[in-house]
Write a structure and sequence with these properties.
- Helix content is 50%, strand content 16%.
- The chain is built from 7 helices and 7 strands.
- The strands form 2 sheets. Strands 2-3-1-6-7 form a 5-stranded parallel β-sheet, sandwiched between helices. Strands 4-5 form a two-stranded antiparallel ribbon.
- A hairpin with a 2-residue loop joins strand 4 and strand 5 (87-90).
- Helix 2 (28-39) packs across helix 3.
- It starts with a strand and ends with a helix.
Length: 181
């Protein structure tokens, strides 16, 4: 399980490492979006999931989890701490079902996260968080991820994704993923 706040660089790093390893990488949000489109064909982007009832989202989460469990081994990119409205919410429900052997938390300097969100290269509606909120969100995400890993008896690895450190990040990701897959 690779996690981190929005624009920490987790999916960017996973795309760089994909050709180096023969593993399946799945973006949980994309899978959830596809699953929800079956019951909500009006959805045109992942950002619109926020408007769907929590019951429908939870049902779709369970379906995606079942599919992922049956297709293991797989590396899942997801969020353990998400912002819902103005609140930070812990969502480790998928983790208990998927039981990852390792949690990799991708962190980055807050200023870089804000720049990445501001550039909006992903075509997504990025979270509107202040510098202080991003820092708190990232710290909470890392602490919760480490705690979930500890509770499940899984390994925990932190990757610091600062601009210019891609090679170092890829080395840590590659050695960790090879060791646990």
């Amino acid at each position: 399980m690779v996690t981190g706040v929005s624009c920490s660089g987790k999916d960017f790093l996973l795309e760089l490492i994909r050709p180096l390893l023969s593993i399946t990488i799945v973006n949980f949000g994309e899978e959830l979006f596809r699953e929800l489109q079956f019951s909500h064909p009006e959805l045109t982007s992942r950002d619109e999931i926020r408007a769907i009832s929590s019951q429908d989202v939870n049902r779709a989460v369970m379906k995606v989890n079942c599919c992922l469990v049956s297709s293991q081994p797989v590396v899942v990119s997801s969020h353990i701490v998400v912002r819902v409205g103005g609140d930070l919410v812990v969502r480790p429900d998928s983790d208990e079902i998927l039981s990852p052997q390792v949690y990799i938390h991708v962190s980055a300097p807050v200023e870089e996260i804000l720049v990445r969100r501001g550039s909006n290269n992903r075509g997504r509606m990025e979270l509107a968080e202040t510098k202080k909120e991003v820092g708190f969100h990232q710290d909470l995400s890392e602490i919760i991820t480490a705690r979930v890993a500890q509770k499940q008896g899984s390994a925990f690895v932190r990757v610091w994704n600062q601009s210019g450190s891609e090679e170092e990040c890829l080395q840590v990701l590659e050695s960790t993923l090879v060791r646990f897959h």
